[in-house]
Amino acid sequence: MDVIDPSAAVIVGQEVRKSWGKTAVHDGLTFRVEPGITALLGANGSGKTTLLGMILGLHKPDSGSLRVFGLDPSTAGHEIRGAVGYSPEHHTLPPDVRAHDLVRHIAELHGLPNRDATNRASDALWAVGLGEERFRPIGTMSTGQRQRVKLAQAIAHDPALVLLDEPTDGLDPVQRDQMLDLIRRCGTEFGINILLSSHLLEEVERVCDAVVILGGGQVVANGTIEELRGGGQGVVVVVDDHGADVAALLRARRIELHLDGNRITISSTDEAVLDLVRDAVAQVGTGLRRLHPRRLTLEEVFLGVALTDSLSSSASSAHGAAEEVVRARHG
To answer: Domain end: 178, 199, 227, which one?
Structure first.
């Protein structure tokens, strides 16, 4: 029997390809997921759920290599599924079953004895805030409560990895905030590795340490959010007051900038430009509160990687996917 290697990378993909019939879903995915909370980010239809299925060993790649804790899901799917919790996107929970009974049953399917599964089910439901509601039939619960049940059944057997497919789907803003807090807690307090599939940039920025971005059937970016955002472009200047006057002096020197109150964003990092900033602040007679490199937002990273890839055959679809994700953020 194969045994997962907890010291190995959580997931490694090399040139993974997958098609359904004549439709290519993945065209050479190469990526790496390290311990922590990682987002699988992409527009709807970008193949996120298909990739989750391959990670679980439910679908086999047409070609390429995929490893989960060092094991091949195609040949060691049973062992991998025993160490992985999964929360599906769609609400497929049986309405007449009590939450505790369902979570206990899933834990037993993962190999826990009945007594341990019973205790773990209670612990998991308390952890997600459903301790008082754990004996209610799932069909009587709200959408937010059902999403919590799905999270509870995914973590009850103490997995090494949890796959969450659109875990905030159907939730109102308050419920979404609560769910994201729970996910972050699972990763930080419980020490569970999490791969969160989402098309919402705000979710990713809030809870994730790293990201795998899908677009056009390929991985268009992979790394920690800090790495991808990097040092950004330009600098941010914050003055005590009279920001418009400082901006006017800089524009007179043909410096491109964006003014927002007393916050000035400048596209250049040239040392001569920084000297002009200091001169303008001194000339106006205000105080320089902050001057630091501007960091890219994840939205800019997502759009930028698609644009950078504009010479590839998949660029237009990757950029279209990026725009769809950005629309989801602002919609």
So the answer is: 227
Chain segment 121-171, per-residue pLDDT in tens: 999 999 999 999 999 999 999 999 999 999 999 999 999 999 999 999 888
How distant, in Å, are the alpha carbons of 8, 63, 246, 310, 323 from that of 26? 24, 10, 50, 18, 19
Same domain, yes or no, for 202 and 272? Answer: no
Bridge partners of residue 10, in order along the sequence: none
Same domain, yes or no: 197 and 268: no
* Sheet with strand 37-41: strands edge to edge: 84-87, 161-165, 193-198, 37-41, 210-215, 218-224
Same domain, 174 and 114: yes
Residues 61, 162 within the same domain: yes
Q: Which residue has the tokens 């990097």?
A: 230
219 with 155, same domain: the answer is yes
Question: Using CA of residue 43, residue 227, residue 165, residue 201, what is the dihedral sign?
Answer: negative
Distance between the two ends of the chain, CA-based, in angstroms?
48
* pLDDT, position 317: 46
Phi-psi region of 273 (alpha: psi -120 to 50; beta: other; left: phi over 0): alpha
Say how far residue 324 (Cα) sits from the centre of its chain.
Answer: 16
Pair 146, 190 in one domain: yes
Contacts of 172 (CB under 8 A, 6+ apart): 144
State how far the Cα of 191 lies from the Cα of 58, in Å rounded to an integer: 26
Q: Is the pLDDT of residue 285 over 80?
A: yes
Cα(5)–Cα(3) distance, integer angstroms: 6
Helix (H, G, I), strand (E, B) or coil at 132: coil
> What does the pLDDT look like over 173-209, one tens digit per residue?
999 999 999 999 999 999 999 999 988 888 888 899 9
Q: Which residue range is the domain that position 252 belongs to?
A: 235-293
- Is pTM beyond 0.90? Reply is no
Structure tokens given for 25: 């879903």
Which residues are 16's β-sheet partners? 29
